[in-house]
Amino acid sequence: MNITVLKVRDLDEAWWRCVREVLLHGRDYKIDRGSYAGQYRREFDFIVCQIEHPSSKCLVPSTPEGVPPPTSRDYIEKEYLPYLMTNITKDKELYTYGEYIEPQFLEICRVYNEYGYNTNQMTMTVGDKDSIFLEHSPCLKLIDTRVQDGKLNYIVYFRSWDLWGGFPSNLGGIQLMKEMMAQEIGVEDGEIIALSKGLHLYDHQWELGKIVARL
Q: Least crowded by CB within 10 Å, which of 52, 57, 94, 198?
């Protein structure tokens, strides 16, 4: 497997650098099972993207003229963040990330506040032993936490990840959640390290991606 490692400043740079790199170096992949079966996507074998300053000041990626934004701050704050952090299930939803994350978020804050920051146990996981049987199991699998040098860092793993719209919406919401946790436990906001063996662009997104990447 080819491992792609990117070190970027913020969420905006993370998105357009990933778009460029996957178009240049990704592997064309025909989907046998899952969402969009039979369709092609271009995918990283495995990517590690270190985002050094993912502040919510740069929450949404910028796009060239003629390319619609992949997400919006309004969507992230009003739609995605509640899905990420609360146990509210809408019609036809089999699950939400929030039903798994909400209780773990509260427990992590409690442990850090009561026992201090030097522990490797504070990891939020999404899904359970029955998730494998779902038609569409959770793409986000874990958010690990590390407090180091007075800053809260998140290590995030997605098993499969839509780069065009999912990546910026997901990381925008996760960043807002991280800022909330940092405030709750009394530390500064830190980095996001995002990992995936399935970060991809669908074939219908390639032409727009080339405009963003200036290829």
A: 57
